[in-house]
Amino acid sequence: MRNLESPPHPPTERGFPEPGPVVAVESAVEISLPCRDEITQAVTRGVGRALGEFGYGVLTEVSLASGRRADIMAIDRSGEIVIVEVKSSIEDFRTDQKWPEYREWCDRLYFAVAEEFPRDILPEDTGLIIADRFGGVILRPAPVTPLAAARRRALLLRFAMLASTRLWQACDPGI
Question: Which of 90, 102, 108, 128 has the CB geometry, 3.0–4.6 Å to 142, for a possible disulfide?
Answer without folding.
Answer: 108
